[in-house]
Amino acid sequence: MKMKTWLSFVVFILCLNLFSIGQDARIQSFLNQYDPYFVQMQIKSLSGEIPVVINDQPLTIHSRLYNNPGNENTFLYCKQQFSDWGYVTEQQIFSANGKNLFAVKTGTTFPERVCIIGAHYDDVPTGSDAPGADDNASGVAAVMEIARILSATDFPNTLVFALWDEEELGLIGSSAYTGGVIHGKTLLGYINLDMIGWDGNNDRKAELHVRSVGNSLSLASLVLETRQEYGINLELKVVNPGSINTDHYSFWKEGLTAVGVNEEYTGDFNPYYHSTDDLFSALNLPYLDEIVKLVLASFSKLAYSMTNNEVLEHLLVYPNPACKEIHLDFEKTIESPVILKVADNTGRVLINEIRQNTHEILLNISLLEAGRYLVSLSIDGDTKVFPIIKN
């Protein structure tokens, strides 16, 4: 192999290794399950291009205007899908016509901590025909696809998939929620999706809306890091202060953590906005796919989030006693260095290692004598010490 070719190969391998830093195999598996066809069929169904089936009856949703029958049918159609995937569904009635829909998966470790992703399902203009493919069938379809993918997995934190009504009348549905009693005791964050399918100049630019409210800046950083970690083909423009014209603002008004991910509102705004020409055929599907994947990975990361102390507290150690190997399972990928030490009953350190980017440590104790040992695990200064027994 020529020297130049060899160096190029080495650089290529190094880049691959750097690119993989921070990736979580579980989140990558979710991305592998993403189905563009499902998203497209959802948008077509919600915008009236193909019929939906509700309670075994086919019908067409011609409009999702707040007082149109299609609005109620959208609610029923989405509720039916959530239920089919095993979610507990809830509703919040806040006006004569207004009704929010929620699908809930309770966290296994921290049920009181809640992650919410949402989109509004109502649309305009008035009249008998309001397709609203981009505004906001695109956002609803993304929420549904993410709910479908995550339905079979348990998470330490509670997940809520929210579909808001009467956003077009002034954020009424989401404001009714944030101004009342929201799910759980602690909101880790809300991610809003409102118009994610238009990219008229094909420049792959999307907007990330944030304000210095709660931990919103940290949540925005999580989204930015996720884009880089998983190689999402988008250029994210941070908008701070973010828009007041969609549902993430309802959270900010109450001091809650939230961000919004959407297409460009400035510079490349959808010319078919709020018109009967807001059709599926105008959407940029590869662009839409990248936004959905970005939010899928970001929301999954939020759903798995735990502090180092919490990770150590809920560490799984098995089998113990053992004669050859003991599994130390963190239940998430630890990006920081993990310092592992094993000491005997005199305090003499027999094993002293540093593990990088690890989800599970397979501790080889085959060379140790039978007896009791103390294991110390440290992550960024947080430490857990516990006994193991070698048979």
Please provide a brief summary of the model.
Helix content is 32%, strand content 29%. By secondary structure, the chain is of the alpha+beta class.
Descriptors for this entry?
single chain, 391 residues, Aminopeptidase, Immunoglobulin-like, eight-stranded mixed beta sheet, 10 helices, elongated, disordered N terminus
What this model shows, in words?
With about 400 residues, the chain is of the alpha+beta class. The model is unreliable at about 1-20 (pLDDT under 50). It is built from 10 helices and 17 strands. Helices cover about 30% and strands about 30% of the residues. Helix 7 packs across helix 9.
In whole angstroms, the N-to-C terminal distance is 51 Å
Q: In CATH, what is the homologous superfamily of the largest domain?
A: Zn peptidases
**Unreliable stretches covering 5 or more consecutive residues:** 1-21
Q: Nearest-angstrom radius of gyration?
A: 24 Å
Give the SSE layout.
Elements: H1 3-20, H2 25-32, H3 36-46, E1 52-54, E2 57-59, H4 69-84, E3 88-93, E4 99-105, E5 110-120, H5 133-150, E6 157-164, H6 172-178, E7 186-193, E8 205-209, H7 216-229, E9 235-239, H8 248-253, E10 258-263, H9 285-304, H10 308-313, E11 316-318, E12 325-334, E13 338-343, E14 349-355, E15 358-364, E16 371-379, E17 382-390
Parallel strand pairs: 5-6, 5-7, 7-10, 8-9
Antiparallel strand pairs: 1-2, 3-4, 4-6, 8-10, 11-12, 12-15, 13-14, 13-16, 16-17
